[in-house]
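User: Can you recover a sequence for this backbone? Please restate the input before giving your answer.

Assistant: Of course. Working from this structure:
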């Protein structure tokens, strides 16, 4: 059996452990502050689109809004959905703007629980994937408009 470390070594080990905890807390705080700043910047950029109507089929894609939508999609949707033919927890959304109307897509994003209760396609998706779509964080109509624009661009609209 190895002898107990000296009291000096125990103190040094405790200090190192304490320093590691402090470093982790500081790193987490920095990450959280950067994330919050990025969310505020995204919200400010989307504020210009707060009153913008949903695009109509055939409208040209607003690339600036689609870029913002890509950011929203990455932050809020990509854990469960892909746009490249890869299914995750939920369906892949490649081609969704060609299969579904833009109003349907918006409604599914904003009110998935209501949609699965009344819409047979939404209900079938819930049954197939076994989960109710959950939006991470609050999405405003401008967020949804940006995601729809991103999906339109991804589909070549």
């Amino acid at each position: 059996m190895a002898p107990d470390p000296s009291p000096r070594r125990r103190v040094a080990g405790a200090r190192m452990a304490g320093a590691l905890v402090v470093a982790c807390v500081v790193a987490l705080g920095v990450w959280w502050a950067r994330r919050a700043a990025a969310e505020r910047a995204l919200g400010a950029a989307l504020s210009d689109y707060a009153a913008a109507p949903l695009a109509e089929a055939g409208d040209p894609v607003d690339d600036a809004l689609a870029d913002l939508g890509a950011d929203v999609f990455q932050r809020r949707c990509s854990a469960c959905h892909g746009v490249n033919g890869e299914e995750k927890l939920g369906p892949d959304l490649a081609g969704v703007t060609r299969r579904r109307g833009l109003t349907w897509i918006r409604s599914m994003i904003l009110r998935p629980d209501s949609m699965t209760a009344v819409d047979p396609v939404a209900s079938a998706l819930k049954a197939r994937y076994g989960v109710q779509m959950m939006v991470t964080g609050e999405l405003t109509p401008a967020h949804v408009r940006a995601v729809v624009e991103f999906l339109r661009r991804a589909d070549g609209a």
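That completes the design. The first helix runs from residue 7 to 47.
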